[in-house]
Amino acid sequence: MLLEGVPGIGKTTLVRVLSEAVDVNFSRIQFSPDLMPADIVGTNVLVVGDDGSKHFRFQKGPVFANVLLADEINRATPKTQAALLEAMQEHRVTVGGETYVLEQPFFVLGTQNPIEMEGTYPLPEAQVDRFLFKLNVGYLNEDELMQVVDRTTTQDKPEINAVLRADRIRIMREAVRQVQVAEHVKRYGVRIISATHPGSDAATEMVNQYLKLGSSPRGIQAIMLAGKVRALVEGRFHLSCDDIRAVAMPALRHRCLLNFEGEAEGISTDAVVNNILEQVQETAPQGAAN
What we know:
Distance between the termini: 33 Å
Oligomer: single chain
Order of helices and strands: EHEEHEEEHHEEEHEHEHHHEHHEHH
Helix content: 25-40%
Number of helices: 13
Strand content: 15-25%
């Protein structure tokens, strides 16, 4: 998940509390321009034995955790950002020709500041696409600010108790994939993805005018899996079109790339996705291919 918002609104605290609520290994990396790939994945170090013999031993980096917080991920150079690519997609890292599998479950939660862009390196599309969701974290309302005051400026300190274990998460992830999906629901999700592709038959007028690139196949994977999770939370063992609409925005907003006209006119990808959701019908139009 990629969390985007101005500094000081609780992005890092949110991830830290989440890790405490789940009994898993947590690791945090503060990204900066001088961070190197080895600082993330680890490196081989020379070890001298008691008998004077020398050999290399792999020293694991902070990526070897169940929940990894990549704080201000856009402040690292592209070379360092790329060190996470294999881990995020394949859940493994390769160092010195050796491949090391990461313990499951493995989640990367990245934060970035959309305002202060000096000294930052925008994430490449290939890496952004690997995030399941992108959430825009806004300012807190009055009631939420009152809770912040009560919890952080008094002697009472809230305690976070773990409510899930890693083995339970693995079981739950397998259960998600067993949720049933009807053919028309599946095709509805596919049509939404097709509508993000400029120049395609399914593209809306707004997509053709303001988008340069649409969603990759990871978009439909994200929508289907996240929708299945929502279905289970709602107490259903089947996916609905409502589930797809509910998760489409966070799953697609970072997978749609604006063209020059879209950026010049200040169009947001959220507006484009909303336009798609308004125009794509649950059932295919008469005469359209099934």
